[in-house]
Amino acid sequence: MRKKRVLHVITSTGVGGAENMLYKYLSYSDKEVIDHFVISLQDLDHFGVKIKDLDIPIHGLSKPIYTLRGIKEFYKTSKEFNPDILQSWLYHSDLACLILNIFLKIKLCWNIRSYKVYKFQKITGVLVRFLAIFSKVPDVIVINSLASKDYHHRILYRPKRWEHVPNGFDLSFNKDKLDLVIDIRSELNIPPESLIIGMIARYSKDKDHKTFLKACSLINKELPNVHFVMVGNQIDRFNLTLVNISDQLKISNQVHMLGNRNDIPQVMPNFDIVCSSSIDEAFPNTIGEAMAASVPCVVTDVGDCALLVGDTGRVVESKSPVSLSKECLNLLRMPNHERLNLGKEARKRIAKHFSIKNITKKYDEIYLGL
């Protein structure tokens, strides 16, 4: 049987949830039945290099897609791969592939990975609503969040077929594999008896770091030995907004801002719990990664966060430092063995419902069925 040839088009290959998921999918996809090729609408970045290391052909456009030279490069590169299926990732790529497929005339899939339109810049918000007009064109729209599916239905997305495929997670790193774990305590001089709360999120209004820090202040008043480790793009000592909030709350000695890191899976098992204070989220990668590492989580009730953690974590209302701190304290005050057992249950939930191997099979089945 001839292999299916799938061309993935993604807006960029920098650090992000969609980029991470594409990389993980390509890492586990069955290369015996599917050939993959990737085009990034921008120069190759972090995940672009990682995809290249998988020996999967990948091309980053040298000119902007909105220029004539960029359009020609996009079309020529796509034609050279001779794909059977065109899979776009994120809205700008959805538009690019919608236009490209006028000429290629092959199977078209979109991949929607965001929740609500209001968070985007005005031009992207207009694009999201514009794409709704053409949502019947793709053969299938893949979506990673049931909450996002409901939202897009409300803004008049009417595809021929929805496919709900949540994010998948690697189960390689957990608290039982300490030889694979980076020792954050030593790196940050955190005493061995101290507890650590982690938050992995880029600096963005949606992630609501202010609420997290206010919750940290309330936790600190009850348990002064707790440390708070924050990781993500622009989460560092150059972010004066976060530094000033920490200073005002008198918790700067307990807060560690590490910026971007490429070793999150190895760092995650250091945490006693992981928090998400997001006010808007579809299906958070970082929470799934924490659960896969046997770390229990406290999340806000947005998007599919509650569906993801199930009964292995705690769910609170968004924008509420009091609620967030209360549930964090409840987990921190658990006997250590009970908290560890809760983390093990979280890992089992990922293995049962959201392992990357199972999620990869779903993507493969979609493509093989077209």
Would you mind describing this structure in some detail?
The protein is of the alpha/beta class. The protein has 2 domains: 4-168 and 355-368, Glycogen Phosphorylase B (Rossmann fold); 178-353, Rossmann fold (3-Layer(aba) Sandwich), CATH 3.40.50. Helix content is 42%, strand content 16%. The protein has 15 helices and 13 strands. The chain has a 7-stranded parallel sheet with strand order 3-2-1-4-5-6-7, sandwiched between helices. It starts with a strand and ends with a helix. The mean pLDDT is 93.
Low-pLDDT parts are none
Order of helices and strands: EHEHEHEHEHEHEHEHEHEHEHEHEHHH
Q: Percent helix among the residues?
A: 40-55%
Number of separate strands: 13
Envelope shape = elongated
Q: What is the top-level CATH class of the largest domain?
A: Alpha Beta
Please summarize the sheet with the most strands.
Answer: 7 strands, parallel
Q: Give the strand order, joined by hyphens, for the main sheet.
A: 3-2-1-4-5-6-7
Q: What is the CA–CA distance across the termini?
A: 14 Å
Q: Give me the number of helical elements.
A: 15
Q: How does CATH name the architecture of the largest domain?
A: 3-Layer(aba) Sandwich
**Radius of gyration from CA coordinates:** 21 Å
Beta-strand proportion: 15-25%
Class of secondary structure makeup: alpha/beta
CATH topology-level name of the largest domain: Rossmann fold
What is the assigned CATH homologous superfamily of the largest domain?
Answer: Glycogen Phosphorylase B
